[in-house]
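Q: How would the structure tokens look for this protein?
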Amino acid sequence: AVDGMDTGSVRRVAHSLKSASANIGAARLATLCKELEQLGRADNITGADRILTDMEHEFQTVRHSLHAMLEKET
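A: Here is the predicted structure in token form.
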């Protein structure tokens, strides 16, 4: 998924996602974003595919949790 992206773009996108995740209390997702951001800073995306896969799984967990919270409120 990061193939063809420059490491600066990977870093910037990961940083934005990290902040957004932290703002909604998705600590595990924020941690994964931080790992991806650090790869971008190091100018090395080796291992990024694994992190992205973990991020996708964690995003689904967060999405389900948020949906359940919203359902409870209505």
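The chain has one domain: 7-73.

The helical segments are 7-23, 27-41, 48-73.

Upvote if useful.
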